[in-house]
Specification:
There is one protein chain. By secondary structure, this protein is α+β, with helices and mostly antiparallel strands. The chain folds into 2 domains: about 60 residues; about 100 residues, PH-domain like, CATH 2.30.29. It is built from 6 helices and 8 strands. Strands 3-2-1-7 form a 4-stranded mixed beta sheet, with no helix packed on it. The longest helix has 25 residues. It is globular and about 60 Å long.
Length: about 180
């Protein structure tokens, strides 16, 4: 009954729409008035605003496209299974997160304390799950994380990648651990 592209767009925006509905519900409580409903409605609106901001960042983080491979996140371990490379890293062992562009393809480079690194294409299936994993890293600024994936930065990086073999940008470093190069 609903066209597939409309259904896909609604599914992609589902968190933002849900927080909008929560805010509308809170505003309805405020409009009803009273000593109990006005503060309760205000709390719902503030909660919806915070969750809505997080939902918008998560939406901007998710990239469209088809890169090979699958990303899995299970109990603090990020795994990538690709056609030519793959591996797994534990979140607690990460010391550095980079966004690199090589041969026109953007990839996350996750580096462990022992120097091992895992490359994950930004557009791999399931890569949108990485937002919550990266947001849990100590000292991570999600605004910086989302800004790194912005179309403006991607276009600049892609144009530079034609002139240079690889473009890298450090997104996060562990505040207390040394990074082996």
């Amino acid at each position: 009954m609903i066209r597939p592209e409309v259904r896909e767009a609604l599914w992609r925006w589902r968190e933002v729409l849900a927080t909008g509905a929560l805010a509308a519900f809170g505003l309805w409580f405020v409009a009803l008035g009273g000593f109990l409903l006005v503060p309760l409605g205000g709390v719902l609106v503030v909660l919806a605003a915070g969750l809505g901001l997080l939902a918008l960042r998560r939406l901007r983080f998710a990239q469209t496209g088809q890169a090979p491979g699958v990303v899995e996140l299970d109990e603090g371990q990020i795994s990538y299974f690709g056609p030519s490379f793959g591996g797994a890293v534990a979140l607690r062992e990460l010391v550095e997160l980079r966004l690199i562009t090589a041969s026109g393809q953007r990839m996350w480079r996750l580096k462990q304390q022992d120097g091992q690194a895992l490359l994950i294409p930004v557009e791999a299936l399931g890569a949108e799950r990485l937002f919550d994993a990266f947001a849990s890293l100590p000292g991570m600024d999600t605004r910086t994380l989302v800004a790194a994936l912005s179309p403006e930065h991607g276009a600049v990086a892609a144009s530079r990648a034609l002139a240079v073999a690889a473009d890298t940008r450090v997104i996060w470093r562990h505040p207390a651990r040394a990074v082996l190069t």
